[in-house]
Automatic annotation (TrEMBL):
Xref: Gene3D superfamilies: 3.40.50.360, Ribonuclease Z/Hydroxyacylglutathione hydrolase-like
GO molecular function, one term: FMN binding
CDD domains linked: flavodiiron_proteins_MBL-fold
Family that this chain belongs to: In the N-terminal section; belongs to the zinc metallo-hydrolase group 3 family.
Family matches, as InterPro entries: Flavodoxin/NO_synth, Flavoprotein-like_sf, Metallo-B-lactamas, ODP_dom, RibonucZ/Hydroxyglut_hydro, Rubredoxin-O_OxRdtase
Any Pfam family matching the protein: ODP
Domain of life: Bacteria
Protein's name according to its UniProt entry: Flavorubredoxin
Organism: Anaerocolumna aminovalerica
Length: 413
């Protein structure tokens, strides 16, 4: 990738990363771009950093070289957020230019010292502080804590209206053919890209939905022309991403979209028979459906679908007096990511005396999930006609409840 000029004196330097698990945990089938930005006034600043996932900044140095910028000439390193996907290169950079000043929040300083050793070449900034780089580039800093870590700030270039938002307004998905703006994608590509944004939001930011909502409201007040995030593509139409992020944040408490996610697992195919039946029933309904088998589909993928779904169906057998283990693990994760207030339905097979419900109740209560369940359907071994009929009724009832919830609560909200 080559450096791209995005506004007067502002350049994007990006690296696409693939074949990694983001945060060591989340699969990213479409990769992710890590973005860094150069602001050239009389002085030069670099906002966030890109490097290989291993913290090796060779790709960043190569990009700087293409711009004829030596690391020695960079005066300020603005670290909006200290997570090593943005800061991992600081250690290497310091060796080349020990004089540069790191600009970040008070909490970033603490992390900077802890990650890369103590250094007093630090300018602490917070809400309302400014930094004048010359040639009109006066930077304003805004506190947007917990999007994603407590240290997070945003940097706003008042001259060009560029908001460097770091993790906020970011997305998975990589930059292809130097198309760095969302509006350069075709309609189909935009649909796929939105899925990547939801994947990113639900996997990385979901637990901080309230803070993401607050940050979105705050950033909407600024005269923003460009939203330049640390991951994914740039938004030339800021209202679009503010609206989208506000919606994703609201998905936590529900109602989310008119969608149902069916999560299922089966050892010997008994529960699977009932799942196939339920899928047929769902196909007859006018509703978007996502179906995921656990543990085959990753947590991140299940979470992406569950995030925008107002209804959830769980189908799993009993296993050693509890629910099928991968279902328990996924549910814990949904709870921790604050997938709250869903309409839900459960069915599944057992062989001895059951037990899945007890564990399900325990998880839902402990994580305050407040899911509202329709009467479950449990069957011994293979489902009988009467079990399938009960499942059909349950699925249809769930669809109805999902639609009602959206109608009534979205109107109130
Ligand atoms: C390792 C293992 C543990 C099981 N534990 C239980 C249990 O604790 N309680 C129960 O009612 N059935 C238990 N069963 C029986 C299954 O729930 C039953 O065979 C069911 O039909 C499996 O459905 P499936 O084919 O959809 O996986 C267990 C089966 C296996 C293989
Ligand atoms: Fe982060
Ligand atoms: Fe990040």
């Amino acid at each position: 990738m080559k450096p791209m000029k995005i506004a007067e004196g502002i350049y994007q330097l990006s690296v696409n990363v693939e074949d990694i698990l983001f945060e060591g945990l989340w699969e990213i089938p479409k990769g992710v771009s890590l973005n860094s930005y150069i602001i050239k006034g009389e002085k030069t600043a670099i906002v966030d950093g890109v490097c290989g996932w291993d913290g090796v900044p060779e790709s960043l140095y190569a990009l700087l070289e293409q711009m004829n910028i030596t690391p020695e000439s960079i005066e300020y390193l603005i670290v909006n957020h200290m997570e090593p996907d943005h800061s991992g290169w600081i250690e290497s950079f310091r060796k080349i230019n020990p004089d540069f000043k790191v600009v970040g929040s008070k909490k970033a300083k603490m992390l900077l010292d802890a990650f890369y050793g103590k250094d007093d070449n630090f300018i602490c900034v917070g809400e309302g502080d400014t930094l004048d780089l010359g040639k009109g580039h006066i930077l304003n800093f805004i506190d947007i804590p917990n999007v994603h870590w407590p240290d997070t700030i945003g940097t706003f270039d008042t001259l060009t209206g560029t908001l460097f938002s770091c993790d906020a307004f970011g997305s998975f998905g990589k930059i292809i053919d130097d198309r760095i703006y969302v509006d350069e994608l075709s309609k189909e590509e935009q649909i796929t890209y939105e899925q990547e944004t939801i994947r990113y939001f639900s996997n990385v930011l979901a637990a901080f939905s309230l803070q993401a909502k607050k940050a979105t409201a705050k950033c909407s007040e600024l005269p923003v022309k460009l939203v330049a995030p640390g991951h994914g593509l740039i938004w030339r139409n800021p209202e679009e991403v503010f609206k989208a992020y506000s919606e994703y944040a609201d998905c936590s408490k529900g109602p989310a979209r008119e969608e149902i996610t069916l999560i299922w697992g089966s050892m010997y195919g008994m529960t699977r028979k009932a799942v196939e039946h339920a899928v047929k029933v769902l196909e007859e309904e006018d509703i978007v459906v996502h179906v995921h088998e656990v543990p085959k589909d990753s947590w991140g993928t299940v979470l992406t679908s569950a995030w925008t779904s107002t209804g959830i169906i769980l189908a799993m057998p009993t296993y050693e007096f509890k629910m099928f283990p991968p279902m328990g693990a996924v549910l814990e994760e949904l709870g921790k990511k604050k997938v709250y207030n869903r309409k839900a339905f459960r069915f599944g097979s057992y062989g001895w005396s059951g037990g899945a419900q007890k564990e399900l109740d325990e998880i839902l209560t402990r994580l305050n999930m407040n899911w509202d369940f329709i009467e479950p359907v449990e069957f011994l071994g293979s489902p009988l006609e009467e079990d399938l009929e009960k499942i059909r009724i349950g699925v249809k009832e769930l669809v109805k409840q999902v639609k009602d919830k959206i109608l009534t609560e979205k109107h109130i909200g």
